[in-house]
Amino acid sequence: MAVVLQSPAPENTERMANRSALPQAGGPVAAPPLALPALHFAAALLWLAVATALLPAAMAPLVRGLVFDPAVLAMVHAIMLGTMGTAIFGTLLQFVPAGLGVPLRSVRLGYWGFVLQQVGVAALLAGFWWWRGSLQGIGWLFMFAAVGAHSRNTLRARRHSVNGRMVGTYVTIAHSALGVGLFIAAARIGETMGWWHVDRLYLLAAHAVMGAVGFGTLSAIGVGSRMLPTFLAAPGDDRRWLVAHLWITTTGLILFAVGAVFTQTVVMRVGAIALLVGGALTATLLGRWFFRRQRALDPALWYVASASTALVASVGMAVVVFVTDAHALQHWAALLVALFFGWLTTLVVGVTGKILPHVTFVRLAPQRPHLRALGTPTALLHPGLLYAGVTGFSAGWVLLATGVWAQQALITNIGIATWSLGTLATLLNYTRLFVNCLPTTTPVPPASGS
């Protein structure tokens, strides 16, 4: 007798659509329209394509130590604000109501934040590429407005969430770090316009740390403290670890930024020590979640595992930078490549692979029989393309960081090609998801067994 997997009945799929795709914390709250998070994830993937396309132009000067080259700055902001920033905001717009039980202040405000951010990133990239201070200033204004819109929509979670106040505090401090990074950027843009003179090297270091550690890592660990144990089936109590991680990292960010603004190297170094301890705690939390897991890794979770490895490597690289020559720009650049590409971007793509198929399936399957026939959200993404993507990203960031650290153009070029293959596999996979979700007029026969 043949055994055939039955697709879920329409009434069961309706119930699935009413359940959150993320862990619940504060009771049932209406989730935002599918278009809101989907637009953010789609834009993040498009910015990933842009950043990858900019890699050849950016890595050539970076290998030579030209960290202020316009192409380098354009590429970094494409990956940080375009890919990572858009994906984080999209995740929060889905997670705050669905995971923390706190409704968004306004869905329309979510769309406005999205538009403002995309215009801001595009203006910044154009301003860096053609080195136009006016365009950089316009991009800064749009980004400032976008952060304000997103903050107003999601930061109320810290005050109103029943069981998610720790996550809300993480997100609030992460947004504050992004705000500090924006003000530091304003000081640098003012210098480009000829309004004043600042120490570009120290401000660049603080700006990068606020983005990678303050906004990126704190957002990832804060939201990840609820999502990743759920994905991994890794129950446990991490509150003490999270409290220590949050406040040690926050202290490090404050000291590092204050030291950079006032050119106080001793204060910066004390802040750097706190940030290194925070990095070790980040690695510890990730290790705790993975070691407690009761579920085998699916293809999307391999991205999270790869990103965690990159985080550990980044902490090790940061220690080397700290104890050797903290002014070695090549080592700083390689460290940021590991953080931006290996840790944050790979993590974002992996989390997108968990959230977007699930949310799409439970929202659209009740109206589209061909999706119900798939039986599971994971069928929307091809596992082979997922594995190809994580392989390309994992090998790519290692080669990119190694090439920049050693100033070896050949290694860097191989890294560009490898990372590009990972990006191509990722874009093909999500194009497949989009095509599979289109309405179809072809009748889907009901599954039957014999």
Low-confidence stretches: 1-26
Whole-number total of structural domains:
3
Radius of gyration: 22 Å
Helix fraction, binned, reads over 70%
Tertiary shape: globular
Structural class: mainly alpha
Number of helices: 15
Mean pLDDT across residues: 90
Task: Give the ordered list of helices and strands.
Answer: HHHHHHHHHHHHHHH
Give the terminus-to-terminus CA distance. Answer: 6 Å
Q: In what range is the share of β-strand residues?
A: under 5%
Tell me about the largest β-sheet: none
Count every beta strand, where a strand is a DSSP E run of 2 or more residues: 0
Topology:
Layout: H1 10-18, H2 35-63, H3 70-100, H4 107-129, H5 133-154, H6 157-160, H7 165-192, H8 200-232, H9 239-261, H10 265-291, H11 299-323, H12 329-364, H13 369-372, H14 383-406, H15 409-437
Describe this entry's structure for a reader.
The chain crosses the membrane at residues 38-59, 71-97, 109-131, 167-189, 201-221, 242-262, 268-291, 300-323, 329-352, 373-399, 405-428. Keywords: Membrane, Transmembrane, Transmembrane helix. The protein is mainly alpha-helical and 450 residues long. It has three domains: 34-100 and 103-155, no CATH class; 175-295, no CATH class; 297-436, no CATH class. Helix content is 77%, strand content 0%. Residues 1-26 have low confidence and may be disordered.
